[in-house]
Amino acid sequence: MSSLSYEIVDVFTDRPFAGNPLAVVFGAEDLAASQLLDLTREFNLSETVFILPPTRAGATYRARIFTVDGELPFAGHPSVGAAVTGSRRGDFPAGDLVQECGAGLLPITVADGQATLSGGTPTLGPQLDPGPLLAVAGLADTDLAGPPPRTAGCGLEFPYLSVRPDAVARAAVDIAAARRYGVNQLMVLGWHPQQRTAYVRMFGVGLGVPEDPATGSAALGLGVWLVATGLLPGDGENAYTVRQGIEIHRPSTLECRVTAAGGAATAVTVTGHVVPVARGEIMVPPFVG
């Protein structure tokens, strides 16, 4: 094996050259993790996903997800992108799928060029001191608005910092502050209650992603945070929308639904379109043992 097939797709958009670009690589099941990381660094996108044969009963396929800094157990836009791209290529049929990844077995439904991803078990952390998070976002105390910040997730946790809607565009990550306070990733959001829409920016400096155009895993965790803070009802199923990437000229739309009971989220899904933009072959990097 001297080369591998790949596609570049844009995720969480219905048009090319928007959303979050993703490299999807096929046939890499015999490569070591170091080789997968070398390939990821060659693409130099926020994430690269490798579609592999499943190793667990009930899984349709296995996804290994990498940033330029290493492997992730789970991420949203690679999961959505892998499911739609693999189905479109005929590697597995559309419909109800199960993705095997580091976060376990996750249901995904593919139809009409989009996928709906179910997150893992919702988790909720304690409230956080807003001062360090505001410093990382390059914002002032007067920009803070809404419920106190805290971490939440559905397979991958993020801290959520609610600010005035006009402050979202002004946020500018302070890398020195992120290192000083040990903040690897941060979701800055402005919540519009009438629209049930969050305008967000995700700074992932500790993941090798200065700013992400669309972050499916963070959109899932946002549903957990919205229910916990009372911004969405604590019982039943409710929809919300995430708008991201506007400031870096990669507008993205993530449509989400959160199910809650007794004031806590029990399940969250995120839906997005996937648009193919390029395909080709890439050399297999040498194995260094």
CATH superfamily descriptor of the largest domain: Diaminopimelate Epimerase, Chain A, domain 1
CATH structural fold name of the largest domain: Diaminopimelate Epimerase, Chain A, domain 1
Mind telling me the CATH class of the largest domain? Alpha Beta
Q: Summarize the biggest pleated sheet.
A: 8 strands, mixed, barrel
- What is the helix tally? 6
| Secondary-structure element series | EEHEEEHEEEEHEEHHEEEHEEE
Main sheet: strand order: 1-2-3-4-6-7-8-17
Give the termini separation.
Answer: 18 Å
The structural class is: alpha+beta
CATH architecture of the largest domain: Roll
Strand content: 35-45%
User: How many strand segments?
Assistant: 17
Structural Rg: 18 Å
Helix content: 10-25%
Q: Uncertain regions: pLDDT < 50 for 5+ in a row? A: none
Domain module count: 2
Mean pLDDT equals 96
The general outline is globular
Structure report:
With 289 residues, the chain is of the alpha+beta class. The chain has two domains: 3-118 and 274-283, Diaminopimelate Epimerase, Chain A, domain 1; 123-271, Diaminopimelate Epimerase, Chain A, domain 1, CATH 3.10.310. Helices cover 19% and strands 43% of the residues. The chain has six helices and 17 strands. It has helices at 33-43, 76-89, 130-136, 165-168, 175-181, 216-228; strands at residues 3-11, 20-26, 48-52, 61-67, 70-72, 95-101, 104-111, 114-118, 123-127, 150-153, 157-162, 186-192, 197-204, 209-212, 236-244, 252-261, 264-283. Strands 1-2-3-4-6-7-8-17 form an eight-stranded mixed beta barrel. Strand 6 (95-101) and strand 7 form a beta hairpin. Helix 3 (130-136) runs antiparallel to helix 5 (175-181). The chain is globular, with a radius of gyration of 18 Å.
